[in-house]
Write a structure and sequence with these properties.
By secondary structure, chain A is mostly helical. Chain A has 14 helices and 2 strands, in the order H-H-E-E-H-H-H-H-H-H-H-H-H-H-H-H. A two-stranded antiparallel sheet of chain A has the order 1-2. The longest helix of chain A is centred in the first third of the chain and has 35 residues. Classes of the chains: A mainly alpha, B alpha+beta.
């Protein structure tokens, strides 16, 4: 095959061209399909809708943003969503850390494989099925309240549901229930990067810390946690952004208050206000950018 | 005097594998003690039991007469220099060294002063604010040493600390480690598989094999009077004479060691002075080492090695396959224990 050999020789002599040839298709895909459509969406937020004709006027204006931030109801939605995302992220981190630490540091290879499958198994099922299943689990006569009743914990549940704002008539129709479902749903996205980060911390560092006189708590605070921060940051970006953008869980489980995702869904669908939907979807992007900047300033990526 | 470290009948089993098998050992305060052996011989396990990273299956570990079996590492007055240095990557050099005082609650200024003092000792104070990733292997080694010394431990454990360094640096660090040990007067327990390192630095050496201690002695005794064939071969690269050859030369069934430098090489027809043992063989190989050369000579089943000083060597090295006579004084044969 002299032609093929000549082509190979041609490419070998021109590394840059060869690289461009390889990278062009994925870059085009990423650039046009991913980022292009994202920027097209974001550009929409700088247009506004004509109140009378309900048509989008393609001229630059901040009117949509003014509308977004001037209405207290919208601010409520943003605040509610952010509060939920923060709570879910914090809870996921607290639950995931011991699990990930066990997987990375103590589990035998067999046990580790079992844990990885266990963590990922729920993700093999349809997301909608899980959300609807949780609605039944958390219903007034559902398994969850039955289970608590077996242990005589019904008063605790009643007390929690009587709490203003986060309570409600049943778990399935309260923010507590929504929080439980969110944490359940995004927990694997916290465990996996955290376990990966912890696996990269050499065991000798933990031993060195103990050797120098650090109690286990001190070793955790000064060695394990700082070195796991990149994993924690990665995991929290998942849980934070997934909660900020989700519209299915808030519409199936929990109190009737709106979330950003539901607003985007409604504005671009029934209301037909694409600019406002776009403006709403800018909010999570800005929030995550701010979060990343903060995490960076706090040194979350120093160990990378 | 109470030994600084004492192991009493210590065994460590990993499943069915006996990493340590009924080891007893006493190390005196201020001693430079080497644990020498090939990989998998149990020397590192022994060190980990003293540090507290691992616990013995049976037996007791004592530090300064106090039973510390089951006591976690952070409550033991020993510190370790790790083979991979184990420097904290998210801390600067001085923060690494100040870690011990920090977790003990020493204030920021005081612990920085302590850390700089020890960094001075290892000649690294100038690099105090660097990150570990910016250091060379030898510098990391010094930081690891400083970090382990900052707590003023009575016992310092070193796990193949020079293993990752190149030859020249290793020799430099050997001299420096020995000097630091003598200056501070603390007990060093030094794990190595390099017999040269153990012989040149240690006051006493324990030779490990298959989870057991073959011999504990001063370097000189180990070299001059090895007790077993394993020690003779591992420590002094000695020739082991056994079986038919031993019977023919000495008339006994015992096993003997003879060090290469005790063997004279003569022509096959040269006379042998009275009182010397000799045997004839064929030259297989000559390895040139500069000041000396090693001659490998086949005698029947065995290959014996003789070391000749280059200055004393014959101007002409005989061709391979040449017939030679090996001769040595009867007293230089060291009888070994049967194993």
């Amino acid at each position: 095959m002299p032609a093929l050999r000549a082509a190979a020789a041609f490419l070998h002599g021109r590394r840059g061209f060869y690289l461009a040839l390889l990278l062009l298709p994925p870059l085009l895909w990423l650039g046009i399909i991913y980022l292009g459509s994202l920027f097209a969406l974001l550009a929409q937020s700088f247009y506004a809708i004509d109140e009378f004709t309900a048509r989008i006027v393609p001229e630059f204006t901040l009117a949509t943003y003014r509308q977004l931030f001037s209405q207290p109801a919208n601010l409520d939605i943003i605040l509610r969503t952010v509060a939920m995302a923060v709570a879910v992220t914090a809870a996921a981190a607290v639950i995931a850390f011991p699990v990930a630490n066990y997987m990375a540091r103590y589990a035998t290879p067999r046990m580790k494989a079992l844990f990885y499958v266990g963590v990922m198994l729920p993700m093999w099922t349809s997301y909608l099925v899980k959300v609807y299943a949780w609605r039944l689990v958390l219903a007034k006569q559902g398994i969850f309240s039955w289970f608590l009743d077996v242990f005589g914990l019904t008063p605790v549940l009643d007390g929690a549901l009587a709490t203003p704002v986060i309570g409600g008539p049943s778990l399935a129709s309260s923010y507590i229930g929504m929080f439980i479902v969110f944490v359940y749903m995004w927990l694997p996205f916290m465990i996996l990067p955290l376990a990966a980060a912890l696996e990269r911390v050499p065991g000798s560092l933990v031993q060195a810390s103990a050797d120098l006189g650090a109690r286990p708590g001190q070793t955790f605070r000064h060695v394990v946690l700082p070195l796991a921060l990149p994993g924690l940051a990665a995991g929290s970006i998942f849980t934070f952004s997934l909660t900020l953008g989700d519209y299915i869980i808030p519409s199936v489980v929990g109190a009737p208050g709106y979330f950003i995702g539901m607003m985007v869904y409604q504005q671009q669908g029934t209301a037909g206000n694409l600019p406002l939907a776009a403006a709403f979807s800018v909010v999570p992007i800005v929030l995550i950018a701010v979060y990343l900047a903060l995490a960076r300033r706090m040194g979350a990526f120093d160990a990378l | 005097m109470t030994p600084a470290i004492e192991l009493a009948g210590v065994s460590r089993l990993f499943g069915a594998v006996r990493a340590l098998d009924d080891v007893s050992l006493a190390i005196a305060g201020g001693e430079f003690f080497a644990l020498l052996g090939p990989s998998g011989s149990g020397k590192t396990t022994c060190l980990r039991l003293i540090a507290g990273f691992d616990q013995p299956t049976t037996g007791r570990v004592m530090l300064h007469g106090e039973d510390v079996t089951g006591v976690p590492p952070f409550q033991r007055s020993v510190n370790t220099v790790f083979q991979d240095y184990a420097l904290f990557p998210h801390m600067s050099v001085v923060e690494n060294v100040a870690y011990g005082p920090m977790v003990r609650g020493v204030g920021a200024d005081e612990r920085r002063r302590l850390a700089l003092e020890v960094l001075e000792l290892v000649q690294l104070a100038a690099l105090a604010d660097r990150a570990p990733s910016q250091l060379s292997g030898g510098q990391k080694q010094r930081v690891a040493l400083a970090r382990a010394l900052v707590n003023r431990p009575q016992v310092l454990l070193l796990d193949e600390p020079l293993g990752a360094l190149d030859l020249r640096l290793r020799e430099e660090m050997q001299i420096e480690l020995k000097a630091i040990q003598q200056r501070l007067g603390i007990t060093f327990v030094y794990v190595t598989h390099d017999q040269g390192e153990a012989l040149s630095m240690a006051d006493r050496v324990a030779v490990f094999r298959d989870g057991r201690i073959e011999q504990v002695d001063t370097p000189r005794e180990l070299y001059v009077r090895p007790r077993t064939a394993f020690v003779a071969r591992f420590v002094g690269s000695a020739n082991v004479i056994e079986g038919a050859l031993a019977r023919r030369l000495t008339g006994s069934d015992r096993v003997f060691a003879i060090r290469p430098e005790m063997i004279e090489v003569r022509g096959s027809d040269e006379p042998v002075p009275g009182g010397m043992l000799s045997c004839e063989g064929t030259l297989e190989e000559v390895h040139y080492h500069g000041a000396t050369s090693r001659w490998h000579v086949r005698v029947g089943e065995a290959v014996l090695t003789a070391v000749r000083a280059e200055a004393a060597a014959a101007a002409v090295i005989p061709a391979h396959g040449a017939r030679l006579r090996l001769a040595w004084a009867r007293e230089s044969l060291v009888p070994l224990e049967e194993r």
